[in-house]
Each structure stands twice: as structure tokens, then as C-alpha cells.
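Changelog entry

Holo records now carry the ligand SMILES as an explicit input line rather than a separate metadata file. Below, a converted record for thiamine diphosphate, shown in the new format.
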Amino acid sequence: MAHPIGTGASEESGPSLSAREHGQGPSTPARKGTQGGGPLTTREVELMNAYWRACNYLAVGMIYLQDNPLLHRPLVPADVKHRLLGHWGASPALSFVWVHLNRLIVEQNLDVIFVAGPGHGAPGVLGPAYLEGTYSEVYPDKSPDAEGMRKFFKQFSFPGHIGSHVTPETPGSIHEGGELGYSLSHAYGMAFDNPDLIVACVVGDGEAETGPLATAWHSNKFLNPARDGAVLPILNLNGYKIANPTILARISPEELESLFVGYGYKPYFVEGSDPAQMHQKMAETLERAVEEIRTLQKTARQTDSPTRPRWPMIILRSPKGWTGPKELDGHKLEGTWRSHQVPFADVRGNPAHLKALEDWMRSYRPEELFDAEGRLNPEIRSLAPKGPRRMSANPHANGGLLRKTLKLPDFRDYAVKVGPRGTTLHENTKPLGEFLRDIMRDNPTNFRVFGPDETASNRLQAIYQVSKKTWMANLTPDDADGGELARDGRVMEMLSEHTLLGWLEGYLLTGRHGLFHTYEAFAHVIDSMFNQHAKWLDISKNHVSWRAPVASENILLSSTVWRQDHNGFSHQDPGFIDLVTNKSGTVTRIYLPPDANTLLVVADQCLRSTDCVNVVVADKQKHLQFTSIDEAIAHCAKGIGIWKRASTDQDAEPDVIMASCGDVATQEALAAASILRARAPNLKLRFVNIVDLFKLQSSADHPHGSTQREIESLFPPGKPIIFSFHGYSSLIHKLAYRFIDHEDLHVHGYREKGNINTPFELAILNETSRFHLVIDVIDRVAGMQAKAGHLKEEMKNAILDNLAYAHEHGKDRPEITDWTWPD
Ligand SMILES: Cc1ncc(C[n+]2csc(CCOP(=O)(O)OP(=O)(O)O)c2C)c(N)n1
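Structure line, unchanged by the conversion:
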């Protein structure tokens, strides 16, 4: 039998409620029998505090204990883990917010998901997930009893088990919060097109100092109250990061308030440390915030043209490591940076610390919370929502369960008509824009396109025919003239790659579909976000069986290096794909379609796929077209293949293989092949094109990889390969290292040479031009040097001549710009 439940709250009082609140909304009258003037009855405060004590007890247990979970006997050193890991400091505020959200979910049948910005405070999320039963449902060995609790404690941050963040193994989490900064953009992405959902997003005050988080506050200018759900940001001002104070906690209250008013929010302050008072304040403030959200939504849903509301947010100023030991060994702990991680260590070796731990854990009075078998007191348990209303079991947080297959028109309907191969020009991304337009039209509530103000620049502007750019900020009369802005637009544009990708990730992880496009060089802005998302997918897909597959993250890199001759050196960087190859092959795909039709085939494939990051590199400018749609389908199905028309080795052993990967790279390689065909007619040249970059890797390393035999039948051993590559040449060596003798592999790619040039000059500077490729063939093919001396000389002269022409005329020679495949 558990003992009766008391508040366990101290008498210490914090600053007054909502001292600086801006609330214009209806205030909540105090109910009969309330304590401290808030909306909760004395009994409600007792019970909610008991629930929170249970959460905090579990949090401490997770960090420290491997045995004796219910303290049925005094702690001994062997009960304590050898390595103490985890973050206590963030945990109590996270579970405090959770307990309060639970109250409103139950009372108002709300649909709420929880985002923990300081995801390192996982004990503050795992505890509630265990108490409301979800954890035991998905991991039956972590049963709701003493033995289950022992395992639950031991597994936390323990080798071979779960990590110390809200990782994919955590039910209810779709934001790990390992790398700080993305909570708010993720939260907004989750809310788009989810009109009934409230996303409660706890933001750490340290996290709030990061660039991605700072700009994500502006997401409120893109949330449509009529069509989307709501985000309730809860900034936890616990005052410290790892070892430093936080900026937002050390500016004046007026400055802090002005900041968030300036961002367009209505901030409510909940400040203090006394649990009883804080429960009342939080209950009242949360109730008010939710009521305002509902009122704003209701008003907006009654009009045709909703305006941007001033959404509520909560600033929760509470001590770091709240309810932990006040001090130890002469140092203050609660309310300081010292309680960020494990407030005190050496528990196995220091009897005083062991005693301090036991006193701390007993201060939560576990005997009142759990019975002798470790089962949660039923009265406390009854506070939690039921079934899918539990935030730990909300289906939005396992978005694959809600994912509907995208309605895709037939991509063949958008194909470019190709006459004689290699003679007609098209903007490769334009037909893709038309394909995306109709996908947008046919999937009006679960597909969006995200880009940093480059939709038109990347030639995808056809999308605007069916949907404009979302814009909830002010409109001016001039916007009507080509601004393409609309309150109900579905094209997401903001000059923050971080915010855009965060939105897309939140959108995908809650079961929807989308595409992010950006300039190739500036994809590096989101390097780290890509890393984190790929890691999330890797664990979810390969290690968490209860997570349903989500739609893949599709990243289109356009405005690529070879056509950034006008923008110069800063805009030339094809290295994002290098980064992608570092991540698990189970979740990464890279495609470099050479023309418009292959791009359409690849796009269709990407939009159908799940649990991957698909990176597609395709330039937006006019390029020669090489494949009919049927040829494109066959070529992309193989991912790598011989182009017969450009080859001269039919039924014979080749002297050389000319390989190409990338649109501009393929055009240069074909131009080189045409020179060789005309000038070295006896040369047996095989032309190989690669669309699916991972075909160059071993099938042992990547699911799209090739076998040794497949590679050797395309690239016979001992034959030189002259490889015209879109990116940095080392990437090809890295991918193909198992297969190809590197003595034979000669890759021409970007070498960090270039500035304001002509396109062809850029190729010359990086030695990727057709003339350089021909020279390399002459140098590598046995016996050719002696015979092709004159041709080599001509190529050298052509290089000098084209450079001189570019510098004199500011453009490339017409023979270069107008070059087409000769037959
Ligand atoms: C981008 C990034 N930089 C640094 C870290 C290392 N780190 C982990 S926790 C932390 C402090 C976080 O402070 P805050 O967001 O206020 O969370 P709190 O623990 O105080 O609740 C830092 C700097 C990180 N995880 N991510």
C-alpha cells in the first residue's frame, strides 16, 4: 500500500504570477477550494505535485541507480552505476510542463505533442512516458513494477542501451534535441496542416542562443490559424547552460519581454521555485494560453482571410536542477550550472555523497508514489490521459502511422521531347517544377515545397500556378504585381535554410511529404541538420521496430557550381554530397541526373521512397538533352550504364572508358568523346554515365551498390578511366576504392579554382574541359601519346585560345556554347 499523498511543497514563495504578462485574454477565475488563488484545488495541487515528484524520482533513479529502484533498503555503493551520465538540470522543468499539459489534455480532450528542445533532459521525458504506461507497452521488459523499474533505470545512458537524449527509441519524441537549435522549427513543421494539433515546444535558454533557434521564432509569420495547428513555445529560463549563465536570463525583464513582443508573441511569465505556487501559476497560464489559441483559431476559421495573430508563449523561469539538493560540499547546486548534468559524482566511493543521493531520492517520498511492487498509486496514475491522447503515444509522434501515400501524376506527362540526342536545350528543372505543381494540386494538405527565396530562381515557379508562397506578415499593394504571396499559400520561403529544413523535418516526421531546394553551395548551411536527420532515420529505421516509415527528405541542389561562374568563388562548392556519403548507406541516396527526363524519373522515385535522405543535384540552366523519357526510365533503373551512341567499342575491348556523372560534366565528356571519335577513329572508347552515385560503391557498403562483376563489366580492369565528375574528385576515389585500381582512375572535378568567369573558363581552370579530357585520354591510353602528339598540341592551343577569347569578349566562343552532339 502506498502512503497518502501530500504536497511535499516547501513554503518558500517565488515572484508574483504573471508580473509582466501581456494577457488581454479572459482571466481564469479561481475555483472553489483552490490554494494560492490559482485554478487548482488543494487536492489537485497535491496530486499533480505527486505526479511530478514521481517524474523527478524516476529522473534521479535513471541517472544514478542500477539496482534497489524503490529504496526498499538503504542504498549501498553497488546500487549505483559505475559511470554516471545524463542531465539532471533540464529534467524537472520538462516533466513539470508535461504534468501540466496532461491536465489540460484530459480536461479538454486536447491533441498535444511535446517537443523537448533541451533533449538532453531525457529523464524528464522518459519518466512521464514510463508513468503513463507507454514505455512498458513498447518495451514490455520495462514493466510497470519493481523489476521493470530496475531495468528502466539501468538501461538509461548505459552501454548497449538507450542514450541520454530523447532519441528515436523514446516514445512520443520526434526531436532528439542532441544538437541544440532545431526544436522550434521542428515544432512549426509539425503544426502545418494539422489544424487540431497543439505542439508544446520547450526551448532551452541556452538553445535559444543558437542561430537556428533565434531565427525560428519568425515561424509565426508562416502559420495560418485557419489551416494549421498551433505551436506553444515554452522558454525555460533556468539561467544556465553547461557552465555559463544564459543571455536571456541575464537581461532585464523589460528587455526580455520586448524581445518576444518584437518577435510577434504575447509572452506570459511563470516565475518562481515554490512547487505549490508554481503549480497554480502554470495551471492558470497554460489554461489561458490554450484558451487564447482556441479563440484565435476559431476567429480565423470564421473568415476568408485570416490575419496573423499574436500567439501566446510562456516564459518559465525556474531553477536549474529544480527540487535537487540545495548544496553539497560548500557549493550551491539547485539553481546553478553545477546541476546541469550529474550534480555530484563519486557516489560509490564517497559515503557522504551516497547518503546525499539517498536523502535526495527519499525527499520525493517514493513510498507514497509507488506500492511495494513498484506500481504507481492509482490516484496519481488517473491524472494521465488515456490511449493516443498520451503525449508519449500520440500518433503524430510516430508520423509514419498517419502517412498517406502521395498522389503522384504520371511523370511521363511532363517529359521533354528529345529529337536527335544531344542537340536540343532545356532548363532541366523546369519540367520538374510542372510535375511538382501538379503534385501540390493533388495533395493539398500533405505536401509542401520549401526553399530560401529561390523557387523561381531554381526554375520551379510553375508551382505558383496552383499555390502561392505562404505569407502571414503584412502585405502591400505592390505584392499583387508578381509577388506570389498568399495567406493560404503552400510554398514555404524564408531566407533561413535552418528554419526551412526544420519545418520540412517536422512535417515529414508527422507523416507528410515535401521537398527542400537550395543553391548547391549553400546547402552547407544545413550540413549539421542533415547529419542529425540522417542519424535519426538510421536509428528509427534499423533499430526501432515500432516506428513506422516516414516519407524521405528530398533535397534538390540547384544553381550548381559549374553555372556559378557569374556569382563567383563563394557560390562554387559541390561538397555537400561528400558529407552525405559519410552517413549510413541505409538512409542516403545521391542522384546526378544528366538531363530533364532523368531528373523527372529520379524525382518520382524519391517522392515515393521512405526513410531516406535523397539528394538530387541538377542545374537549372539550359542544358543539352540526351535521353527520351523511355531511355531515361531504363537508364535510371540501372543507375549506371553504357551510352552506346557515344561509344566506339561495340563488341570489343575498350582502350579507354570515358565516365561522366553530372549534367555539365556529362556534356563535357560527350564533347571530348566527339573530338576523339573524329580525330582518333581507331580508338575504342566506352562511354559510361552514372545517375545513381552509390552505384560506384560496393553492394557490401550500400544497398544501391554494385558487385565486382557488375563494375568490371563496365570498367574492365587495366583500362584507363577518364572520369568527368560534377564534384570533388576525391569522392569518386573514396566510393570506388574497393573496385577500381586507382592507377587506372583519373577523375576530373572541381578543384577550388574559379571566380568571375565564363562557364567554359571555369571548366578550363579546373581542368574539366573537353580539351583536358582529350589530353588525359592521349596521356593514359597505351601507345597513344606517340601517335596523337598533334592532337594534343591542338587541345593545348584550344585551351589558350578559349581563355583569351573569354577574357577579351566576356563570353565563351559560339563553338562552345552552341556545341551539339554531331549525329
Ligand atoms: C549545437 C550544440 N552546441 C553545443 C551543445 C552542447 N551542450 C549540451 S547541453 C548545453 C547547454 C544547454 O543549455 P539549455 O539549452 O539552456 O538547456 P538546459 O540544460 O539548461 O535546460 C550545451 C552547450 C549541443 N548539444 N548542441
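Spot-checked after migration. Residues 226 and 303 are 8 Å apart (CA to CA). The pocket of thiamine diphosphate is lined by residues 87, 89-90, 118, 120-121, 179-181, 204-207, 210, 236, 238, 240-242, 246, 320, 340 (CB under 6 Å).
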